[in-house]
Amino acid sequence: MVDTAALTGNWTIDPAHTTIGFSARHAMVTKVRGTFDEFEGSAYTDAETPGNSHVEVSIKTASINTNNEARDQHVRTGDFLDVDTYPTMSFKSTKVEQLDEETARITGDLTIKETTKEISIDFELGGVAQDPFGNTRMGWEGSTTINRQDYGVTFNAALETGGVLVSDKVTLEIEISAIKA
């Protein structure tokens, strides 16, 4: 059981130990994975009254990294994220529910390309610990699937064998390490 006093407080997301990633099916046969390497975020958690908790994250869209520079450059264009017009995407929670001792559902507004849709992400608590530098850290892992078309990310190409080049479904994969203020 986690000490509720250790969970309650203000937190800053540690970008060096956090991954904001995604995966999407490519050519109907495999998944391409990537991350966003530049972001910032904060949270307030209230272990006694989880509904008082909230989180905000801002992500620089140009920081996309799929380990293929040509693909990353294409995803930065108007075909996908249009990073010159929309330099950030964001998430702001609207509701936090404790599902069980180690799982919380965070519902909120995800904004991509000025389109905002409500999503929910179930996060599992990895734990709370003191690091060697005296920081209290908290870890969470969660994922959810969105439809990129809902956010105006519509580029695609038909394949000769049927299907399309890029799936509409994108799985968001998030591993957070946060430091208590």
Walkthrough of the structure:
The chain has a single domain, classed as Lipid/polyisoprenoid-binding, YceI-like (Lipocalin, Beta Barrel), CATH 2.40.128. The protein contains two helices and eleven strands; from the N terminus they run H-E-E-E-E-E-E-H-E-E-E-E-E. It has helices spanning 4-7, 69-76; strands at residues 9-13, 19-26, 30-36, 39-45, 54-60, 64-65, 88-100, 103-112, 115-130, 136-147, 166-180. It has an eight-stranded antiparallel barrel. The model has no long low-confidence stretch (mean pLDDT 91).
What would the keywords be for this entry?
Lipocalin; elongated; 8-stranded antiparallel beta barrel; mainly beta; 11 strands; about 180 residues
Summarize the structure.
The protein has 2 helices and 11 strands; from the N terminus they run αββββββαβββββ. The chain has 181 residues and is mainly β.
